[in-house]
Specification:
single chain, 195 residues, alpha+beta, four-stranded mixed β-sheet
């Protein structure tokens, strides 16, 4: 069973994340940050990873800690659910078009976290959401999930479309990478024998 539940409690946030890698993309996310919930829903739906997230944060300051700490907990849950990574495809990539925007994501569930982020978002806000938090989320997610993640904006001028395309592209790449490889389901996908 490739499932995990992670709780994170600090002076800034209270977060619980539950995931099922072999789900159907069912989601129930409530972080108190509307646009972020919309992005997490996209991440779940397009990766086919069932996801339930509850977060309470220090919103009187801003949304930064809530978004970042959710990324931390979600990355930890992914890592736990993958276990020894035996049989996974490991790599995934996607070119995701959304109207004016096209974002490319490529990732490796290597256990070696590294983020390459070439996504310029033209406006500082989408509604009340600080657009710089998109990168903060993926920094925390990739770092705690042990993911080598490259995300590049190829086209786009609408901030909402660019941010959403980034989440969807990562989701589609993740969907491929966590799948079981039917040709090698009994082995870790590395010549080292471990990830």
């Amino acid at each position: 069973m490739r499932k995990a539940k992670v709780s994170r409690s600090t002076a800034e946030t209270e977060i619980t994340v539950e995931i099922d890698l072999d789900g159907t993309g069912t989601y129930d996310n409530d972080t108190g940050v509307g646009f972020f919930d919309h992005m997490l829903d996209q991440l779940s739906r397009h990766s086919l990873i069932d996801m339930t997230i509850r977060a309470k944060g220090d919103y009187h300051i801003d949304d930064h800690h809530t978004v970042e700490d959710t990324g931390i907990a979600l990355g930890q849950a992914l890592r736990e659910a993958l276990g020894d990574k035996k049989g996974i495809v490991r790599y995934g990539a996607c070119h995701l078009p959304m109207d004016d925007a096209q974002v490319r994501a490529a990732l490796d569930l290597s256990g070696r976290p590294y983020l390459v982020w070439n996504v310029d978002i033209p406006t500082p806000k989408i509604g009340t959401f600080d657009t710089e938090l998109v990168r903060e989320f993926f920094t925390a997610f990739s770092g705690n999930g042990g993911i080598t993640l490259h995300v590049d904006r190829l086209h786009g001028f609408n901030s909402h479309h660019i941010a959403e395309a980034a989440f969807k592209a990562v989701a589609r790449a993740l969907r491929v990478a966590v799948e079981t490889d039917p040709r090698k389901a009994d082995a870790v996908p590395s010549t080292k024998g471990a990830l």
